[in-house]
């Protein structure tokens, strides 16, 4: 009798396993096993970087990996915050998006340059007619953001890009801007950003609800080029760099760091020396150009309800005065 019951039990377990696999295999949110492990490719330097006092963790790996997502979120406290600074209520969205990426590496295996010298390129109008392109291309790591174009502006902003940070409303969709040597980094501000990435990578229909403007409906980059930024970096930008409050009054919209400040914070965690270009804005003249491209004026930045422009300018002034960074467009 016991043997009969054991056989029934084992058969039930087997049947459950088969049905589980079939149902999850037919579900768009099925997550296959992946081997996406982080490699510690940054080498220790003999001297500390000038900005070392700003860092809580040195050589923090900035990109999320599927295999240790839960462990890392717990280790660095991201599971205690909601998006955009944590994973607490969006863990499943992170998990399914990460399952479709092919790598979470920081640099290529062939990259053995230690103590990297990096430059972060802002999109400010100050870059116009500065002819910094050749100098910018000489850095080990070149970080750009959003849809700041290279095409047609090479003399001022250079040709190379190592990393480009973006969110769904700011990523290139024109194939003319494609660069196979660029790693693009999604900054997830809301769950719909992760759903958007999943939809593009799986060919599902994109739900455009929940975005402040229409997101890109196609992705010109390949899965091997895409990373998801760890919310820890954004959290450090908000609280450590800009000292933004954790709780805002009910009559105020929460302020978040701009992509530029997030990019600088990323650079602090992966570089030994950081230079800046294109981060100077003429806030006193609303008619001055906002970007080195296009026709937007500074009045658009002054109207922003999502960013604390004053706090960001003070932060930039502080790190420049303390020689934590070198600003190529100071004048």
Low-confidence stretches: 13-36
- How much of the sequence lies in strands comes to 5-15%
What's the main sheet like? 7 strands, parallel
What strand order characterises the main sheet?
A: 5-4-3-2-1-6-7
Please report the first level of CATH classification, the CATH class: Alpha Beta
The structure class reads: alpha/beta
Q: What's the helix-strand series?
A: HHHEHEHEEHEHHEHHE
Q: Portion of residues in helices?
A: 25-40%
Shape: globular
As for the CATH topology, it is sialyltransferase cstii, chain A
CATH architecture: Alpha-Beta Complex
The count of β-strands is 7
The overall pLDDT, averaged over residues, is 87
- How widely separated are the two ends? 89 Å
User: Over the alpha carbons, how many angstroms does the gyration radius reach?
Assistant: 22 Å
Separate helix tally: 10
> Any idea what the CATH superfamily is called?
Glycosyl transferase family 29
* Number of domain modules: 1
